[in-house]
Specification:
Layout lengths: L2 E4 L2 E3 L5 E7 L8 E7 L6 E7 L2 E4 L8 E6 L4 E6 L8 E8 L13 E2 L3 E5 L1
Parallel strand pairs: 2-11
Antiparallel strand pairs: 1-3, 3-8, 4-5, 4-9, 5-6, 7-8, 9-10, 9-11
C-alpha cells in the first residue's frame, strides 16, 4: 500500500492550495486518513483527520481555513487550504490507519505518504 500525495507548491500569503492523497491499493480501505505537517527541527503534528465519525481538526489555527474531505469512491483524501499564512509553510504528510478512529498519535498510523512541500511567502 502506498499513499501518493500531490498538490503542494509555492503560494503567496492569502492564497489557496489543495492537497490530495491517493491510496494505491483499491482494496485497502483505511478506517482513518489524516493530515500531518512538519517543519525542520520540529515534530510531525496532526492537523486533521477523517473517519466514520466525519472530520476532526486538531490544530485550532487551521480549522477555519482548511477543509479535510475524503472521496471513498476514489479512495483519496483531500486538504483544501485557504487564506494561507507564512506559518503554514511545512512538509505535509497524509497517513492511514487501518483500524480505529483518527488520532493525533503518529504511531497508530500504518502508512504514510512521502510528504509534499507547501511554501507560503
Amino acid at each position: 500500500v502506498q499513499l501518493v500525495e500531490s498538490g503542494g507548491g509555492s503560494v503567496q500569503a492569502g492564497g489557496s492550495l489543495r492537497l490530495s492523497c491517493a491510496v494505491s491499493a483499491a482494496t485497502y480501505i483505511p478506517s482513518c486518513m489524516a493530515w500531518f505537517r512538519q517543519t525542520p527541527g520540529t515534530e510531525r503534528e496532526a492537523i486533521a483527520g477523517f473517519d466514520s465519525a466525519g472530520s476532526t481538526y486538531w490544530d485550532d489555527s487551521v480549522e477555519a481555513r482548511f477543509t479535510i474531505s475524503r472521496d471513498n469512491n476514489k479512495n483519496t483524501l483531500y486538504l483544501q487550504m485557504s487564506r494561507l499564512k507564512l506559518e503554514d509553510t511545512a512538509t505535509y504528510y497524509c497517513a492511514a490507519r487501518s483500524r480505529g478512529p483518527c488520532s493525533v498519535v503518529r504511531g497508530l498510523y500504518n502508512y504514510w505518504g512521502q510528504g509534499t512541500q507547501v511554501t507560503v511567502s
